[in-house]
């Protein structure tokens, strides 16, 4: 018996030491990688952002532009998947990808290598919009069956609002008509009493912008409920309750900002609401910047972690809008996002052998997906790239490397005192 106990103890200590060595090695490697990234020039950082967005988006747009998305895109699901997800996953991939890519495409074409690359993807995006909304197309998408299509009709609508010059105005009349029909058809889906209300509101905002006969009830109810659900310090409940997750950045702030941005241009009565929401979003963005660790990681809390760095959509959007708090320099946000995205996009298993995203937060971790997660869902990660809508001449992209808040404080530097806001 004594010998048996000794063997168990020896195995325990060996296991503990091995686990400690693995953890220490991982942390040391991550810190070394973060240190190395500091030396990369702003030009190299932007090239990384562009190449990463293209790597994510290329399989989707290449296939959809040729009416081959439903044939070529794999549909990975988690062990607890609610159903096959094939009824909804394609619109998820398309709408979410386009929403994140839109500001970059909106810069238009020019004779630079990046401008020529944008020309390619603007063309693919326009063809994809046509195929996704043409009832006679092989890749015509489901906007009406099940609940999920309302979500991704909203992301599609958001993309159009973020890039009207490239994703709406050049479309032919028939395609425009099909787009509006597809968006309006999603009205048959009733949203849950949560952030889902904003999906209905976003669809109506696009209809206000590009057509007529918006459903004012679906729009105003979404906004009024979220006024009631504001909890303070830049944070909304997901419904009446607080949730420790990233939905204030996945959906709640970005969609309110984009909805109010449309409404304030149509009606002066919304300007105050827009200003209030922008103030709250700016505060939440400041919190997000402080969440990014010195080595570019962040807390894996709440649901939908398989959206990866899409969790920092709001920080990217506030930087895009040039509305960062005065104590947060654009270059420190760029540097933080670079470390974070670099970590995750280069993790083994993030992509399959054909370049499609796989379920996971850091690499391939299929079990992390909730029942509603499938391959298409993962393309929400593209929302972190909104800052590519700033031209390369902007200070965000041209200023030298700057450490972010946690990078400063954990190396002994001074940081500004943090304050809550109402």
Could you walk me through the main structural features you see in this protein, from its secondary elements to its overall organization?
The protein contains 16 helices and 2 strands. The protein has 422 residues and is an all-alpha fold. It has a two-stranded antiparallel sheet. It starts with a helix and ends in a 13-residue tail after the last helix.
- Fraction of residues in helix: 55-70%
Beta-strand residue fraction: under 5%
Cα-atom Rg, whole angstroms? 22 Å
Average pLDDT level: 93
Task: Please give the number of β-strands.
Answer: 2
Poorly predicted tracts of residues? 21-27
- Secondary-structure-based class equals mainly alpha
Shape category: globular
Number of DSSP helices? 16
Report how far apart the termini are.
Answer: 64 Å
User: Largest sheet at a glance?
Assistant: 2 strands, antiparallel
Record the strand order, biggest sheet.
1-2
- Helices and strands, in N-to-C order? HHHHHHHHHHEEHHHHHH
């Amino acid at each position: 018996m004594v010998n048996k106990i000794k063997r168990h103890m020896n195995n325990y200590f060996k296991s503990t030491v091995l686990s400690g060595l693995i953890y220490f090695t991982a942390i040391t490697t991550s810190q070394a990688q973060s240190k190395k990234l500091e030396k990369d020039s702003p030009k190299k950082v932007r090239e990384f952002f562009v190449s990463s967005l293209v790597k994510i988006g290329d399989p989707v747009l290449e296939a959809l532009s040729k009416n081959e998305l439903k044939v070529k895109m794999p549909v990975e699901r988690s062990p607890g998947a609610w159903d096959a997800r094939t009824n909804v996953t394609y619109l998820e991939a398309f709408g979410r990808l386009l929403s994140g890519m839109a500001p970059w495409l909106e810069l238009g074409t020019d004779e630079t290598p990046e401008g020529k690359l944008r020309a390619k993807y603007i063309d693919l995006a326009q063809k994809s919009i046509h195929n996704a909304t043409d009832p006679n197309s092989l890749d015509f998408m489901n906007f009406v069956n099940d609940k999920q299509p309302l979500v991704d009709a909203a992301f599609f609508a958001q993309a159009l609002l973020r890039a009207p010059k490239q994703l709406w105005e050049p479309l032919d009349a028939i395609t425009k008509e099909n787009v509006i029909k597809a968006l309006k058809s999603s009205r048959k889906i009733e949203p849950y009493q949560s952030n889902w209300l904003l999906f209905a509101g976003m669809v109506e905002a696009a209809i206000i912008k590009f057509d007529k006969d918006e459903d004012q009830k679906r729009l105003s109810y979404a906004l009024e409920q979220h006024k009631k659900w504001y909890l303070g310090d830049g944070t909304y409940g997901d419904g009446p309750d607080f949730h420790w997750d990233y939905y204030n950045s996945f959906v709640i702030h970005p969609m309110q900002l984009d909805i109010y941005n449309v409404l304030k241009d149509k009606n002066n009565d919304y300007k105050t609401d827009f200003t209030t929401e922008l103030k709250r979003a700016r505060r939440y963005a400041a919190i997000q910047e402080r969440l990014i660790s010195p080595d570019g990681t962040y807390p894996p809390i709440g649901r939908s972690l398989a959206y990866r760095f899409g969790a920092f959509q709001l920080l990217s959007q506030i930087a895009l809008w040039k509305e960062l708090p005065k104590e947060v320099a654009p270059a420190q946000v760029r540097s933080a996002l670079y470390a974070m995205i670099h970590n995750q996009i280069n993790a083994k298993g993030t992509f399959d052998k054909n370049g499609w995203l796989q379920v996971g937060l850091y690499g391939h971790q299929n079990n992390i997906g909730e029942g509603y997660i499938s391959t298409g869902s993962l393309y929400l990660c593209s929302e972190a790239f909104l800052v590519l809508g700033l031209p390369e001449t902007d200070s965000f992209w041209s200023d030298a490397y700057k450490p972010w808040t946690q990078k400063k404080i954990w190396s002994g530097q001074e940081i500004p005192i943090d304050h809550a806001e109402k």
